[in-house]
Fold these 2 entries.
Entry 1:
Amino acid sequence: MNFTLHLTADCNFACRYCYETHSPARMSEETAINACRLLFSYGHKKNGFSLFGGEPLLCRGVIERVLGFCAEESAKIGGQMRYRMTTNGSLLDADFLRLASEHRIEIALSHDGPLQDDQRRTRGGAPTLGLLDEKVSMLLEAQPNAIAMLTLARENVGRLSEAVLWLYARGFSRVNCAIDYRPQTPWTEEDMALLAREYGVLAEFCAAHYDDPRPLRFLNFDAKIAAYIEGRPCMECRLGIKQPSVAPDGRIYPCNQFLNLPEYLMGDVMHGIDREAQKRIYYASLGEPESCRGCALNARCRNSCSCLNFSMTGDEHTVPPVQCAHERALIPAADRMAELLYTKKSPRFMRAYGGRLPAKAE
Ligand code: SF4
Ligand code: SF4
Ligand code: SF4
């Protein structure tokens, strides 16, 4: 069982593209521990929390309480905990990294490489690239496979490959990119053409270095390639079931973008999940968006992310045009990478996928 704990909506950064509505609200220890109790009440041995913010490390005391409580409860049932945390990195230190390795917290660092100072500033407006330098070194030493989470602002679209390759050179082997999906960002066709070009550059680079001892894994491509070869959707949403979100006040919602919306409330940490509300929300989320019927990319598209659709269009089933255009830029680049790897019979690629390549690729 997995929950997302929204520890706070507060942050010590004020990134230009941030979509969060910041507030000083923080989850209390009592609420966090009740969330843990609820998690264990389902009787699963494998459990996990995604530690989410704002900036989750502003709530370090609560995190430490959660880790201690869950370690004890897990030990009683011979279970296993896993944690994920995305952080802006500013509050990382050696003690926390020790705790992270003891409790299996997989840390993803939000970092835009050379574009960092353009968008990612402290609340007081100070640049953050230099501030993070030592933190990046410490993180990569503790977790060499840590993911760099890059957010691409529209005005920097032509510099995506430069930013990803900068992060790779800095020591990150795994990079994920999200574009600025705020509804007010005016992405144009020209931007998307530039983005397609940038993805193309990265596809060539990833393919050329795929068999290196330390290849660049651009995770956006990995998901699309695996989905095609393994014949499965590139994401499985299961809204409200897979990863319910616990708000700072303990109320439970189906996912990140639905926090504090009364019509999406599905319980709280004291009383548990309201099964009827959960079922209603889950079933309402199913179904193919009308605009996607017949599209060849359907199974490999993130068109069914209710969060993204809802936050941009106000409707879970309406895919925003920018998402469609983005997928049409990304998927062909991933295919190009797979084609290059297949053509050169990359040993690593063939080991990973050789036995499962669809007949037409063979
Ligand atoms: S670090 Fe994250 S939560 Fe904080 S302002 Fe930046 S994007 Fe928003
Ligand atoms: S709504 Fe989107 S973010 Fe939430 S679980 Fe579904 S796919 Fe994931
Ligand atoms: S590419 Fe566009 S039309 Fe095709 S499945 Fe994705 S969102 Fe729908």
Entry 2:
Amino acid sequence: MIDSEVIIVGGGPAGSTCAWELNNSGIQTMVLDKKTFPRRKVCAGWITLKVIRDLKLKKEEYPYSFLTFNRLYFYVLGKKIPVRTRQYSIRRYEFDHWLLERANVPVQQHAVRHIRKEKGCYVIDNRFRCKYLVGAGGTNCSVYKTFFRKANPRSQKRLITAIEEEFKYDCQDVNCYLWFFERNLPGYSWYVPKGNGYLNVGIGGKFLGIRNKGRTIRSHWNCFIKKLEKLSLVQDRSFNPRGYNYYLRQTANIGQIDNAFIIGDAAGLATSDMGEGIGPAVESGLLAANAIINGSTYSPKSVTKYSLVNILLGK
Ligand SMILES: Cc1cc2nc3c(=O)[nH]c(=O)nc-3n(C[C@H](O)[C@H](O)[C@H](O)COP(=O)(O)OP(=O)(O)OC[C@H]3O[C@@H](n4cnc5c(N)ncnc54)[C@H](O)[C@@H]3O)c2cc1C
């Protein structure tokens, strides 16, 4: 049996941020992730100034792709709206790996299946034991499924389905574009250039809203790709996108039961308007870590709920 004061299931931004904060306070912490890092994560990789601040990330220390946008170009029902702001793009493949290494805690590749409580501890797959258990395993997090599903049911109305592809591309246009509500999509599509010659394009929206209109995210994707070609933003390329489903901010937000916690996508914390999930993952990771450090109670209630206001204010 491997013992650790805290075990975090999932090494994405939520788990690695939590581990980093705990380790900085000298609390014995270990991360279990089913994948070996660096790993691919389906995501556009847009981050905000708040994320940079919360992570105390110094641009000069970050060795990978990093692009700053001083403007975003919104298209709402065909109308172009340039928005002055300060936003950033990173590649999740690099960013998540860097964050996890920076946390400086033991990381074990292990897909968590079974968790039980025994004598005040949590026992994972009869191999790992901890006093505090943090669920940061994304939408299908095993900590959520074992301890939180009943107390914290997720509303299917807030389920987002999204697909994207990230690839090397010599972008002639390095602006960031977002198209809202095209073809009645309850969501938006994006063109997000990265540093070091990469590009991410994708589309996401509310699952039920798309299905109720007799469409699929894939049919929206096909039209979106035609649009990118027509606008000469991407040309002569055959695509092979990957998808992931996750939840917008839920109304029931119980983040802690006894010494078990859920953070990030496991808690359904992506912002209600834009589906921004990295910021809420980081914020909730810090909150849970500080509750463990201080012996206080954790709640994700204060985590940012909306992105748009902050974008408009350049935060
Ligand atoms: C197409 C798309 C585009 C997006 N674009 C953006 C964007 O531009 N900006 C933004 O802010 N948000 C975006 N999001 C949302 C964002 O990606 C997520 O909200 C964010 O990754 C949540 O971080 P997390 O750490 O909670 O989970 P994750 O990043 O999903 O990390 C969870 C980790 O847990 C591991 N894991 C899962 N199950 C187990 C298990 N049983 N045992 C062990 N390990 C396990 C996984 O391998 C993974 O490494 C996007 C999402 C999608 C789908």
